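Quick one: examine this chain and its backbone structure tokens and tell me how the chain folds. Here goes:
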Amino acid sequence: MRFTQQLVSLLVLASPSTAFVPQYQSTRPACLAANAPNTATTLFASLLSLELEKPLGILLEEVEEGHPMGVKVEELSDAGSAAASEYADQLVGLKVASVCGEDVTAISFDDVMDKIIDAPSPVQIAFEVEDGADAGGEADEAAEAAAPAELQFAVGETVTITVIQDGAETEIQGRVGDNLRKTLLDNNIEVYRGLKQKLGNCGGAGQCTFCACDFVESQGWLERSDYEDGRLAKSPNARLACLNNIQGPAKINMG
């Protein structure tokens, strides 16, 4: 099979019909919307709906090569969150029904990949389950458990982010749903300090941890992700700015 390379924020090894979903941050608030649906709009038997942290570790394949009929799960990588899911043994062979509540059953492979890559982490992704399958009842339970928590502030609402740096406080305005790292940079906040951080940052891919900031105060923010818990174990109040969309007012310490 012929492979090509696509440049996102980091290189993604892909082909016209298969690809591993990489770890990637997004400025789009798709999965944060309080009213985002957690089911696809198409009519089929039932859905297995999960929230998965990036990297997903899902190898996808076209349902029918060369035709815009969506994608199915070909294989799982042990390094991804899908393989760690309690439903891992049911995912291989299932067709992807929706990404962040948007129906992807009748679009091309590349379009499905774009939606997954653009989605923030965790990604809400649903899979079609056939009638009579044992996963049917479990799918309903998973869909209910995976429903996103309701945000205290509406997506698009303007909130104040207070930034502490060098002992001084600077107030900037950000919109709920916008990426925190991008908002800081757009407001001329020095996210990366020193030559090592300026030259060695990963560009918002969640790898270098140089954009970590301590949350002194916050209102309406959900708990940080399991991925951040692992990368920032020694800093329980820290978050990676690149992997967080704004959820409410906050006071953060940038050092």
Observations:
- Residues 9 and 74 are 24 Å apart (CA to CA).
- The domain at 158-253 is CATH 3.10.20.30 (Ubiquitin-like (UB roll)).
- The longest helix spans residues 135-146.
- Residues 1-30, 32-45, 132-140, 142-148 have pLDDT under 50 and may be disordered.
